[in-house]
Structure formats: structure tokens, C-alpha cells
Design goal:
This protein is mainly alpha-helical. It is 59% helix and 3% strand. The strands form two sheets. Strands 1-2 form a two-stranded antiparallel ribbon. A two-stranded antiparallel ribbon has the order 3-4. The model has no long low-confidence stretch (mean pLDDT 91).
């Protein structure tokens, strides 16, 4: 059912080229409209564009709840956040679903070099960090700086301002062609890895072909797109990159302050295996720290993890039909998908999502997860049509859907009982209804950690 839900989405059936062409046509209609119609058409266009972002979020949530490969789903979230793009920059609202599907998802357990190159050649990233405007004589350092600071080596890892400037020069001419004509002449190495090759563009006329010096190596004059691939290989092979990526993975999976010895072991694996992400994680998962009592269950859930783990616990059986409430709960907790403005992505430490307001909202959402069960299992189109004619009937439909999809409270209790403190168990025993019991369980201190 989940596969059919995803397959029916527009983002699954249409390419970014289709979406961009449709938007251009719609914009022409807006511009040609008389003043009375212009605002209405623009509003309709904005709403239509927003649907693609909504579908991307719903696809992400559906997979995160129901996929049998949870490691891949966790890593899709992790790597998207690591290579964050912002939906409201340029045409990224039409591109981010493709970015996640083709630049991030296929590489989450592969080689880091391939992941880096796939993100580098995707228009969503090139637009977001301004490299689409980077050209000889008008060099834009924004993307080059973020690659080194956030994507690979990490801040204060030894690179210089001159390295940033020269990487920016290497990246001149790397841009996009949103008309979909592409311009990949002489870029065979890039063409093999581009996630959206028809929109990616390398323009030799915009490339700085003078000699360059980057990370201690000479790039002779006359270079072309091959310089980009060489620079990516160099960045992926830096010891600083191995350590930075190992630390970020350990921070995400293990602890806010992962042991240096574990990070060092992971970095060693990363370097030895040419940046193999799966093998680097294998080192972490087989470390003594990963299964020790000191770290097991000590990682505070961020808003996305809290909502998704709650949904998996409550409704992990028959897939829900309406994903919008789940996406809205994530938004309410301050971690909306695709909406982090700055390139560092959302913070992964406890301090980044722990506050009194956050806890209050988690309690409210815990209650909503039960009272809105009927909405989750009500056909969206049916609900909309009924809402227009008979709200009472709509509520009846939702109540029936809720009754038809009860939460397996006893199964949950058996599953989670070993993790509960005596105080939490006592509080749960004092509840009067199943809804109250379930809400308090999701609000318990133990459920805030993973």
C-alpha cells in the first residue's frame, strides 16, 4: 500500500524538467493576466508548487514509518541534513524531491565520494549555495566554503582561505540549465555520476582555466571539468574528512559527545575503505561503546525521531492513509522538513531540541496521535468532499476509522515495559483510559530517548 501511495504522487510520475516547464507556463499566464486575476493566479501557482514539497515530506514520512530498512531511512535523514538544501531558494521547491531521491538516497550506505559528487552536481545544491552563479571573473566562494567547512573536512581542520578561493575557482562553470537541455560536453566523469544530468551544466566558457593550487597540489592551466572530479576525490580522501564524517555519524547514532577512541576507529575504517559509509558504520555498531549501558538509550530524540518513533510504535501495522497530520506534528515541533534556512542543517544534540516549550508540544502531540487516529485512516478525498456537505458525517467516518484501527496497547506495553522506570510504571497504572495511558507513555522520560 505504501508503495502504491508513493507511486501515485506527482513527484514519482513527473521529472523536475516537467515541473519546471509547467511552472514557466503558469508564470507566463500570471504575467499575462489582468490585474483582477493576477493575484488569484499567483496564489494558485504558489499553492500548486507547495504540493510538491508536501508530497516529498509525505513520501519521507511514509518510508520512515513503514520501510523494513530503517537504517537506510535514518541515513537518508542524516545525509539530507548534512547536505542540507532550502526549499525556498530559487526553484528548489520543484527540485528537492529529486535531490533526495537521486542524489542522497542511493548513496547513503555507499562511498562518501559518490555521495559528495552526486550532491555537487545536483541543481538543488548548486542553486542553494550560489554556485550556479560562480564563473571566471565573478567567483562566488559560498559553496566552496561550505563544502570544506560543513560537508567534508570541517571547520578549523587546517585548510586555508587560499584553499577556499581555489576550490571556488575549480568550481567555476559548474551550474545548471533549468531548460533541461544540459551541457555536459567534455565532462564524461561527471556525466556518470550526476543525479539529474539533464539539468546539470558545466560551461567551459565560465570556467577559470588558469593554474590553481589546492590542498598542496598543483592544478595546471587549461583544466576543465576534470578538475572538479579531482578536487572531490582529494576532499573525500583527506584525513580531516574521515575524522569529521566519523564524528558526525557517531554523534547521530551514539552520543552527543562520542568517545574519541570510537571516532578514531571509525575514521581509520573510513580512510582504509576509501570512504565506505557502511563499513564505517559497521565499526561503530560493533564497538564496545555502542552496546554498553553507558550509551544505550541515552541519545535524546530530535523532533523528527520523536514523531516517527511514536508513529511506528502506535501505527506500524496497516499504513495510514493521510500523512498530513504527521508532517504537521513534525512542523509544530520546530524541525520542518526541507525548511532549514542555513546549510549546517538541524542540530543533532540534546540542547538543540530540548526546552520547556518543546516538551509541552510533545505532550500535546502525544494526545493528538490518538484522538486523530480517525483522520490518519480516513481517505483524504472522501474527507474533503464530506467536509463540504456534512461535517457530522465526516466525524462519524473518522470515528469509525479510529475504531477500525485500534492501538495495540498491550502489545506496546509488552514491548516497552523493560525500558520503563518504576515511577513511570506506577503513573501508567493509575490511568483511567487507554488513550490516557498511551499519551502518558509517549510523554514519559524514557520515550524521549533512543
Amino acid at each position: 500500500m505504501v508503495r502504491s501511495q508513493i507511486a501515485a504522487m506527482d513527484i514519482s510520475q513527473r521529472t523536475p524538467i516537467d515541473l519546471l516547464a509547467e511552472r514557466r507556463l503558469a508564470e507566463q499566464q500570471v504575467n499575462a493576466a489582468n490585474p483582477d486575476m493576477k493575484d488569484k493566479l499567483q496564489q494558485a501557482l504558489n499553492q500548486h508548487t507547495g504540493l510538491y514539497v508536501q508530497q516529498a515530506a509525505e513520501r519521507r514520512v511514509l518510508r520512515a514509518i513503514y520501510s523494513t530498512n530503517q537504517l537506510q531511512e535514518m541515513l537518508t535523514w542524516f545525509w539530507f541534513n548534512h547536505f542540507n538544501v532550502f526549499q525556498y531558494k530559487g526553484n528548489n521547491s520543484l527540485l528537492l524531491a529529486d535531490y533526495e531521491e537521486h542524489a542522497i538516497r542511493p548513496h547513503v550506505l555507499g562511498k562518501f565520494r559518490d555521495l559528495l559528487l552526486a550532491t555537487l552536481t545536483h541543481p538543488a545544491m548548486l542553486i542553494y549555495l550560489d554556485n550556479a552563479q560562480n564563473s571566471a571573473g565573478a567567483v562566488n566562494e559560498n559553496y566552496a566554503r561550505e563544502i570544506m567547512e560543513l560537508h567534508t573536512m570541517g571547520v578549523d581542520s587546517g585548510y586555508t582561505q587560499a584553499d577556499v578561493e581555489n576550490l571556488a575557482r575549480i568550481l567555476t562553470g559548474v551550474g545548471v540549465d533549468l531548460a533541461g537541455n544540459g551541457c555536459l560536453a567534455g565532462t564524461s566523469q561527471l556525466a556518470n555520476v550526476t543525479a539529474s544530468s539533464s539539468l546539470f551544466c558545466f560551461n567551459p566558457k565560465r570556467h577559470d582555466q588558469h593554474a590553481k593550487f589546492f590542498l598542496g597540489q598543483n592544478f595546471p592551466a587549461g583544466g576543465n571539468a576534470d578538475e572538479v572530479v579531482r578536487a572531490v576525490d582529494m576532499l573525500a580522501q583527506q584525513p580531516a574528512t574521515a575524522h569529521f564524517i566519523a564524528h558526525q555519524l557517531a554523534l547521530y547514532f551514539l552520543d552527543d559527545n562520542p568517545p574519541a577512541s570510537v571516532v578514531d576507529e571509525m575514521a581509520h575504517t573510513f580512510s582504509k575503505t576509501d570512504g565506505d559509509i557502511a563499513k564505517t558504520l559497521n565499526t561503530l555498531f560493533h564497538s564496545a561503546a555502542f552496546s554498553s549501558g553507558q550509551y544505550l538509550g541515552s541519545k535524546y530524540k530530535d523532533p523528527v525521531q520523536y514523531v516517527l518513533s511514536s508513529m511506528r510504535l502506535l501505527y506500524g501495522g496497516e499504513p495510514i492513509q493521510d500523512v498530513r497530520p504527521v508532517v504537521n506534528w513534525i512542523n509544530q515541533l520546530g524541525e520542518p522538513l526541507y525548511t532549514h534556512l542555513t546549510p549546517e542543517g538541524y542540530g543533532m544534540r540534546k540542547q538543540d531540541s530540548l526546552s520547556a516549550d518543546q516538551m509541552a508540544k510533545r505532550f500535546e502531540i502525544a494526545r493528538a496521535m490518538f484522538w486523530n487516529a480517525g483522520t490518519l485512516y480516513t481517505n483524504e478525498q472522501l474527507a474533503i468532499s464530506l467536509d463540504a456537505t456534512d461535517k457530522k458525517q465526516l466525524q462519524t467516518v473518522r470515528n469509525e476509522a479510529r475504531i477500525a484501527h485500534p492501538v495495540d496497547t498491550f502489545g506496546i506495553y509488552d514491548l516497552i515495559r523493560p525500558l520503563l522506570s518504576s515511577q513511570t510504571s506506577q503513573i501508567l497504572r493509575q490511568t483511567l483510559t487507554m488513550d490516557e495511558w498511551n499519551s502518558l507513555l509517549l510523554s514519559s522520560p524514557e520515550f524521549m530517548y533512543r
